Structure formats: structure tokens, C-alpha cells
């Protein structure tokens, strides 16, 4: 069992990013990512995104560095790869499971409950919002293009907190991407 990383070459948020994968298990991948100090939010269904500055920590944690093409071949052979064509369905199933677990009456566009994984970026759409909360002692991070999105985000967090508290889990931790529909739920 080995965890592999490729050469960072994807630019986003002013940084350069690479991919981190396992050849056999997601549990092994998560364990190495934790040892290397990667945030759980950098997990994306079958891999972690890692910023070029994390290379030393990844090497110290036991990562094997390979070329980009080799990394793809290893991931395909592992059976863990979620192909691009299936990623929307995998995200939808993940959101439906999280909505059901939380007790929501409807499933947002994308939803993760817990500290592992991330939802898609905020779309350029009126009323769209994206909320991230990893620490209940701090205010959630809200992204929205307009007041409708900000109101919907606040309503979602309030509703998710109420449901999570009712289930005995404390404040809601996770990420959501949705569009204001007027219900706040």
C-alpha cells in the first residue's frame, strides 16, 4: 500500500496544486494526508488536492512522488478512481446521503456533513451561496454574489444547526452549495 503524489501544475487561488492518491484504500490516503497536515477539505472524492508548499510534509509522511501520467495510471488500476463522467452523480449521491443524515427536507445542490471533502466552487448565479464551517466556535465562511444568497446562507446554517442540535450532534459542521429558493431549508 502506497500513497502517491504528482507534480503540482494546476493554478487556483494564486497557488499551484497537485494530486495525492492511494493505490489501494481511501483510509490509507486519509491517514497519510492527516500525518502530512493536509486539511480534510482538500479531499475530492478519490484524491486530495495539495498545494506545492506541502511537498516537504508529504515526503516526510512517506509519499512517493511520480509523474502525472503515472499517477493517473496508478489511480485507474486502484479501482478507486471516479471518472469525470460519474463525478456529478457521485457528488449528488453524497449530497443526498448528507441531507438525509442531517434531516433536511430537500437536498441542496451539493452538501457535505463533517470535515472531510469539499463542494464545488460558487457558480456565477443570482442567489447562489457556499458555506463552509469546520469550527463551531467560529462564524461560518459564507460566499455569495448577492443579498439573496447571503440571506439563504444564514437561513441554511440556522436550520442545519437546529437539526444537528436536535440530533444531539452540536452545531452543524460541513460545506454546502445551493441557490436561494426562499425557504431557507
* String of helices and strands: EEEHEEHEHHEEEHE
Instruction: Provide a count of the helices.
Output: 5
Query: What Rg, in angstroms, do the CA atoms define?
Result: 18 Å
Shape: elongated
Structure description:
This protein is an alpha+beta fold. The chain has 2 domains: 3-81; 87-179, no CATH class. Helices cover 35% and strands 23% of the residues. The chain has 5 helices and 10 strands, in the order E-E-E-H-E-E-H-E-H-H-E-E-E-H-E. The strands form 2 sheets. Strands 1, 2, 3, 4, 5 and 6 form a 6-stranded mixed sheet that branches. The radius of gyration is 18 Å and the shape is elongated.
Highlighted features:
5 helices, four-stranded antiparallel beta sheet, six-stranded mixed beta sheet, elongated
What's the short version?
The protein is of the alpha+beta class and 185 residues long. The chain has 5 helices and 10 strands; from the N terminus they run βββαββαβααβββαβ.
Annotate the secondary structure layout.
Blueprint lengths: L2 E3 L4 E3 L2 E8 L3 H11 L6 E2 L2 E5 L3 H6 L3 E2 L2 H11 L8 H16 L7 E4 L14 E6 L7 E4 L2 H20 L7 E6 L6
Amino acid at each position: 500500500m502506497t500513497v502517491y503524489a504528482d507534480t503540482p501544475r494546476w493554478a487556483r487561488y494564486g497557488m499551484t496544486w497537485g494530486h495525492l492518491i492511494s493505490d489501494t484504500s481511501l483510509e490509507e490516503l486519509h491517514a497519510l494526508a492527516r500525518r502530512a497536515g493536509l486539511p480534510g477539505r482538500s479531499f475530492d472524492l478519490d484524491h486530495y488536492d495539495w498545494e506545492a508548499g506541502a511537498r516537504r510534509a508529504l515526503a516526510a509522511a512517506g509519499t512517493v512522488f511520480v509523474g502525472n501520467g503515472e499517477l493517473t495510471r496508478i489511480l485507474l488500476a486502484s479501482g478507486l478512481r471516479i471518472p469525470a463522467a460519474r463525478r456529478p452523480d457521485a457528488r449528488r449521491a453524497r449530497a443526498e446521503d448528507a441531507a438525509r443524515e442531517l434531516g433536511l427536507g430537500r437536498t441542496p445542490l451539493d452538501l457535505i456533513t463533517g470535515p472531510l471533502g469539499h463542494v464545488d466552487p460558487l457558480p456565477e448565479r443570482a442567489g447562489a451561496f457556499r458555506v463552509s464551517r469546520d469550527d463551531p466556535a467560529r462564524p461560518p465562511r459564507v460566499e455569495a454574489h448577492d443579498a439573496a444568497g447571503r440571506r439563504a446562507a444564514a437561513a441554511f446554517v440556522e436550520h442545519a444547526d437546529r437539526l444537528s442540535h436536535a440530533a444531539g450532534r452540536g452545531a452543524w459542521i460541513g460545506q454546502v452549495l445551493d441557490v436561494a429558493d426562499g425557504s431557507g431549508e
